[in-house]
Amino acid sequence: MHQHHRARLAKILVFAAIVLPSASLAEGWSTAALAPGASLANIARESEAAEATPGPARVQPALGPPRAERFLPAVGKARQAMAGPGILDRSLTAGSAGANAPPTASSSVEAHDSRGVVIRLAQPARRVVTLAPHATELLAAAGGLGQLVGAIRDDDQAPTEDGRPSVGDAFRIDPERLAALQPDLIVGWLESPLHMLQSVLETLDIPVFISAPRRLDEIPGQIEALGVLMGTTDVAHHAAAQWRQRLERLRISQAERQPLLDVFLEIGHDPLYTLNRDHVIDEVLTLCGARNVFANAPLVAPQVELEDLLRRRPDVILVTRRPEPAARQAARHTWRRLAPALPAAADPLLIDPDWLVRPGPRLLDGAEALCRELDERRARGAAHRL
User: Fold this and answer.
1) Which of 117, 190, 194, 380 reaches 20 to 30 Å from 133, CA-CA?
2) CA proximity to 97, closest of 146, 52, 56
3) What is the mean pLDDT of residues 173-195?
4) Higher confidence at residue 106 or residue 309?
5) pLDDT at 213 (0 to 100)
């Protein structure tokens, strides 16, 4: 496979691990869960072709006129509902943003997203759509869950009791549904799935905040940035401060942990996939006194050959699995068959993937849990050596 295509596919695999509930990749998730005719490889090719399309915009259009015409009626209806020439200049009618909308603010707001792009709004956002579960977590932490009007179908963090509509799945966003929701802010993770939305985004002038934290310290900053954009700065600053305090306490408690443990992280099993140092989980491992044995892999989500894993002989096998007993028992059984050749496989460490793979507020819960588990492994190892 072409190296650039492999890199694109790896990026899509990370996206799947982040947005699909309970790390479906690690549980034999297949492309049957995608839209008809879709596959990870096809999505990677479409994304690569879209990014090659010339043009000045950061998010390049991947939508030709025939597909654009399909949702233009919805765009027209959305524009008619606006009181000004563009979404940034309009004033929402009373009640249109929901009962939990913030008070009307006349001053403009701005914040930087993960790309370093400045997102400017003429007034705080009142109708927000998120395109990844970690984005919904960040929105909630910032005090903006009342402004959430839509999310993706796979988002297990978005409240469902109020009938909040979905705008598609993790890989295929429905432009008609998105336009009908009249959002004044979209919070996404990758730019690639937004290519097909370029026409509707430009027509409605909808700003997109890309949230892709790669370091732990970036997560509270994202909470604060979203708080600014939604006019909930007090709530956001308080949540971010608490998060930073917890992180600092964990760093102090884990300082100079010895011995360092070599860890293999599994995010997909058949075939084996892991994550390199470009994912925030690598920092979590370092924080807990561990080394990612594939930290220097050239791709963010490399496929791992069993022979290569055996040569690296990790001390701990860290497996992302949802908490259901059947799923965890199956994972233990699979790894224990390798125990004669890889002693660490006899007792794999299982942890909820939503706590570790998604770069949102709950990642700190996962870091605290992982550090405790690795401390127990060190203690057992020390007792065994006595």
Assistant:
1) 117
2) 146
3) 84
4) 309
5) 93
**What are the phi and psi torsion angles at 301 (to 5°)?**
-130, 75
* pLDDT value of position 27: 39
- The closest of 41, 44, 87, 31 to 193, measured between CA atoms, is 44
Q: Which fold has domain 255-385?
A: Rossmann fold (3.40.50)
Burial string for 208-237 (b: 16+ CB within 10 Å, else e) reads bbbbbbeebebbbbbbbbbbbbbbbbebbb
CA Rg value for the chain? 22
The answer to whether the peptide bond before residue 259 is cis (omega within 30 degrees of 0) is: yes
pLDDT > 70 fraction of the chain, expressed in percent and rounded: 69
Domain ranges for the chain: 59-240, 255-385
What's the mean pLDDT in 188-213?
A: 81
> How much is the pTM?
0.75
Taking the C-alpha atoms of residue 379 and residue 244, their distance in angstroms, rounded to an integer, is 28
Give the Cα separation of 194 and 36 in Å (integer).
19
Strand pairing report for 208-210 and 109-112: unpaired
Q: What CATH number labels 59-240?
A: 3.40.50.1980
**Distance between CA atoms of residues 314 and 262, nearest Å:** 5
Dist. CA 383–CA 381, nearest whole Å: 5
From the number of C-beta atoms within 10 Å of its C-beta (0-12, 13-18, 19+), residue 266 rates as buried
Give residue for tokens 């966003």. Answer: 173
Beta strands 290-292 and 148-150 are: unpaired
Q: What's the pLDDT band for 13 if we cut at 50, 70, 90?
A: low
